[in-house]
Amino acid sequence: MPRADLRRAQRDQRRSADELPVAESEARHRALVDALPEPVVLQDIDGGIILANLAAREALGITADGRPRSATLPRQSTRTADRPADHRVTLRPAVEPLDELRAGALEAVATGHVTTGPSITVGDGTLVATSLPLVGDDGRVGAVVTRLGALGATPDPHDGGEDLFRHAMQFSPIGFGVAALNGRFLRVNRKLCRMLGYRADELQERTLYDVVHPSDLEETSVQVGHLLRGDVEAITMERRYVGHGGMQLWGTLAVCLVRDAQGRPQQLVVQIEDVSEVHRAQELLTHMTLHDRLSGLPNRTLVLDRIRDGLERSRQTGRRVAVLQVDVDHFRVINAHSGQEQGDAALAEIGRRVQRALRPGDTVGRIGGDEFIVVGPDVGDETEAAALAERLQDAVAQPLPLADRSISPTVSVGIALSASSEADPLSLVRDAEIATYRAKQGGRNRWELVDSRLRRDALERLDLEEDLRTSLATGELELHFQPIVDLASRNVVGREALLRWNHPDRGLLAPGHFLQVAEESGLMVELGHWVLLEAARVAAATGPDAGYVSINVSPTQVTRPGLAAQVEKALSDTGLPPARLMVELTESVMLSSAVGARQEIEQLDELGVRVLVDDFGTGFGALTYLRDLPISGIKVDRSFTAGLGTDQPSERIVEALTGLGRGLGVDVIVEGVETEQQRELLAALGAEHAQGYLFGRPEPVLMPA
């Protein structure tokens, strides 16, 4: 091949293989191998030919993948008086040279050393095969490179195989070198130079140990020592390497020995494959596994590990580990008013504020939602832990701009302190959570330190939550129905479905005993769905004379999408007409500006289901929702009914609310009517409908009207 073509092929090879499609990259590698002037073949560990370059194909009469082109190969000619010297005669079977090649490769695989095979007679000459084993990441020979050299010009297999190295390995995608037994590089290929940032002459002034990271130097020296003593055939290890200017990379090192004819170590064959990208990907995956995506802070797994580290240090220092759970107050309101994107931005900023307020050595992590965990590994007592909690609260409470408004967020903090270095990290986190729950119950924007009473209450609550989760499957929930009557005729016009829990140990429980637990544990939507289906089923079975059925819907149900769709399906499945179902929503939901809640209310109205405002008057701050939303009725809270006949302001409030309902054309139902005097006063004030113990208590079976 012309020298210019060879240089062009070499330039092409220097381009990154990553930039080439697989097929094109393979074609270029084949072209480079074909550019080598000497016959070179790549063989597998069984001696089979994987790839033969052009010179080898011509010399051996084979195809690129080692198959004979014909059944015979040219043999060295015999000169006679009547036959020209260049005339080729007796043909030699192709299988013989290939068998000899295979034998040489198998010997190289078996010994792990450069070997010289028998001479191979081809055409008008004799070639000698020199085989070099290539060691893979696992320390085993993965392939063999064999060069066919002219007889008398074959390089000593123990001098480093200069020609073989120069031609077969110069363009290897793996860093390759031959080193003296002391590790000094004698020959290096271009890939190794590029990996380490040195010129070949610069690298040949250094040893393998000069480029190994100092932290890995001792282990590398020990392993090479095992190799030199003959304890192992080859070594493979993944370590860090240091190149020009202090640059670092991760590489897989494979080293094997070249021995002389007597088996004495002569040189080291060194291969280094750059695996830095793999390590960077692993580091990224590890970071993603141990850190919260939104805030970048440590997640629960890493926080628990930091607690363990703190407990370990406390064995030497005698100090204590403080675990503080930091819970953002009213974060649902922030999300509802500003949207999830702004809510996420607020959480990320709160996390940064907490982080800035920490002491050196403290850790803050996000464990989900609006909850953060702070680990203080060097705390003396409760006073010091409380001071840390107050510093966190002050840092978070600074004004925080969100879209078109500014808020001053507050946090509730629960504190747990390790009693000894043998404390359990999970128990500390659980205790901090218990204290946070009490801080929120106490009014929020405060801190609480866990104690034995708090632990006992929390355990009872956890038991109740677990029982509630199984109550649906075990059939412990039931509905009781309280009549709603016409005040003038006392006829029943409908009934309100009220949830009861028939607990196997605690007896019949009213909603006040478990609804808060349902809300906080995420069970409210499932419970609400059960109430809807059961109420619709019972109402449909009693017939139209029973009037309508009214169900209470929690804010959680209406602010999440899908309520209207659930109602529509329940009506379809049970056959209950939409006009016989009334949905009661609290005034706080009506006052909410959440777009999703308003859409659900409008969709319920489109279905023909009536919407009622429950406990009307207790949140008497705005009445625009009565104008803007499709409201069918209001229920006057029982706190106003209790004062009828004895408290004049209460009578005036009831009168005003009744008049408001008439003026707006909506139904008015007065709750909590227990006496005849209250009934008569309400009738005189113009109220139409009422419910209360005077007309009937909640009963487990819906009675016909």
TrEMBL record:
Q: Where is the PAC domain?
A: 235-287
Q: Where is the EAL domain?
A: 461-705
Family annotation (InterPro entries): Biofilm_reg_signaling (IPR052155), EAL_dom (IPR001633), EAL_sf (IPR035919), GGDEF_dom (IPR000160), Nucleotide_cyclase (IPR029787), PAS (IPR000014), PAS-assoc_C (IPR000700), PAS-like_dom_sf (IPR035965)
Q: Which domain of life is it from?
A: Bacteria
Compositionally skewed regions (Basic and acidic residues) per UniProt = 1-18
Query: What Pfam families does this protein's entry cite?
Result: EAL, GGDEF, PAS, PAS_8
Tell me the SUPFAM superfamilies matching this sequence.
EAL domain-like, Nucleotide cyclase, PYP-like sensor domain (PAS domain)
Q: Which residues form the PAS domain?
A: 25-65, 161-231
Q: What's the name of the protein?
A: EAL domain-containing protein
Query: What is the scientific name of the source organism?
Result: Spongisporangium articulatum
